[in-house]
Amino acid sequence: MNDLAGTRQVNPRWRTLAVALAVLSAVFLVVGGLAWQRVYGRASTQERVALAHGLALHAAELRDTDFVTARKLGMAAVGIHDDEQTRAGLVDTMVEMYGRALSPLTQEASREVTVSGDGRVALSKDDGEANVWDLKPWADPKVIEKPDRIPTLKGHGRSFVNTTALSFDGRTALTGDDDNTATVWDLTDLAEPVRLATMAAGRTTKYTNGVKKVALSRDGGTAVIVNHDGVMTVWDLADRSRPKRLSKTRSNTVPIRDFALSADGRTAVTVDDHNEAAVWDLTTTERPVKGASLDLSQSATRMAMSANGHVVLIGRAGRIEVWNLDDRSHPVRYTTLDVSFDKLYGTYDMSLTPDEKRLLLAGPGGSGALWDLSTPSRPARLATLNGHMREVESVALRADGCLALMAGSSGVSFWDLADLDEIVADPKLVSCGRHDERISEAEWARYAGGVDWSEYRSEDSDSVSVCLIDWWS
Questions:
Q1: What are phi and psi of 315, to 5 degrees?
Q2: Which residues cross the membrane (predicted)?
Q3: Helix 67-80 vs helix 427-434: crossing angle, to nearest 10
Q4: For residue 444, what are the domain limits?
Q5: Cβ distance 185 to 172 under 8 Å?
Q6: 79 and 149 fall within a common domain
Q7: H or E element at residue 13
Q8: Could you give the 3-state DSSP secondary structure of residue 430?
Q9: Residue 191, in any domain of the structure
Q10: Are residue 381 and residue 444 in the same domain, yes or no?
């Protein structure tokens, strides 16, 4: 009886210990399971990221040769892992697709392209003359037979055209020639351009390369000519057939690299070979006043100015400086864009929309880089426009930013950017709304790097639906 009683007294303690051990074991199992799950989860996430980036890379490689597959792989990459890299890749593929839907204006090498603000007229310059284009039939996909090139604007006498400019409405054109003259053209009838007048650019004897840049105010009433010597002449074009020279100013003592004029013709900026960027007040056109200089740390290549003259962009090696000219006597550097990853180690040209929100850059990489400057302190890269040429020498944007032109070694091409904002906001949603794409087992085996596809498709399907890939994975 005593032994039985003793046993009964000990058992509760053993039970308590056993329960405690069981609880501890359970805790260890749970903790261990959670730790394993976290490790497994990390591995799974890493696998998805690697797969998505691999598909995005294959998509980029296929853009020039197989758009459909490039689009499918890009959509799948975003569905598997939506990050900046996969999203940017799909945006570039879609933008390029819609750009290529428009035929090139010409496949002859072009060194400069200009477009009117309304997008009705474009000028492309080759070695010696400027070609006039009516863009309406080219931008209309319903027009199957695109027109041949229409008349050219030739230099004065035996001279060659160096540079061009267009008024906002496309009815007035300027050509700057290598004999140091500029010609005013009436483009009211695009089929028959009319030479109205010739203006002297104030030639000196130091350099003999003629006119470097010409510019027109938005209304076409003011013209500015800058020659390689640094002589700037301002002209009144109220009567286009009888231009009146308002002033002649020695803007620089060394050759000019670039020149920009505000839409109202009251603010200008010059950049010379000594890396000086000078701001000019042309409010009194008879007496231009040289104001402050921008403090450039490196050699400047090209620049662009906003329509109101309050923002100017200076391009140099791999960087774009954004300057605020609200106070022309005290320019302030807003920010700097690093464009080196766009292969723009030297910026050949740039175009800025009048509202300062969209910027197109061109450089030696054979493509253009499109940027969003809506918030100047936080510029954002939007897309790459592949020019399919060795070098893009000149770019132009329509005033609303919905049409882009690029000129270079392979001619002039243009891009429909009307849906760009929608595409950038959600490229997969836009693409799925237009295309129902599927990746076959053979394609998955070829591009997915050996990853099991069962996680990314429905069990009863023999292919992967790229628009539903995030549902099944």
A1: -95, 135
A2: 17-36
A3: 130
A4: 2-96+436-472
A5: yes
A6: no
A7: helix 2-62
A8: helix
A9: yes
A10: no
Distances from the Cα of 336 to the Cα of 276, 319, 364, 395, angstroms = 18, 7, 20, 20
* 347 part of a folded domain: yes
User: How many domains is the chain built from?
Assistant: 2
CA distance 77 to 57: 9
Same domain, 207 and 83: no
**425 part of a folded domain:** no
List residues bridging with 238 in a β-sheet: none
Interval 22-49: pLDDT, tens: 555 655 555 455 444 444 444 478 888 9
Q: Which amino acid is at 237?
A: L
Got the DSSP string for 184-222? EEE-SSTTS-EEEEEEE----SS----EEEEEE-TTS-E
Residue 71 lies in a domain: yes
What tokens were used for 93? 């593929």
CATH number at residue 239: 2.130.10.10
Choose among 224, 301, 297: nearest CA to 260. 224
Inter-CA distances, 419 with 277, 431, 457, Å:
36, 11, 30
Q: Looking at the structure, do residues 109 and 89 belong to the same domain, yes or no?
A: no
Q: Please list the alpha-helical segments (H only) found in 63-162.
A: 67-80, 84-100, 136-139
Looking at the chain, the whole-number percentage of residues with pLDDT higher than 70 is: 81
Q: What is the mean pLDDT of the chain?
A: 82
For 218-364, where are the alpha helices, taking DSSP H only? none
Read off the pTM: 0.80
34 and 68 co-located in one domain: yes
Q: How far, in Å, CA of 447 to CA of 443, rounded?
A: 6
> Contact at 8 Å (CB) between 357 and 373?
yes
| Residues 172 and 91 placed together within one structural domain of the fold | no
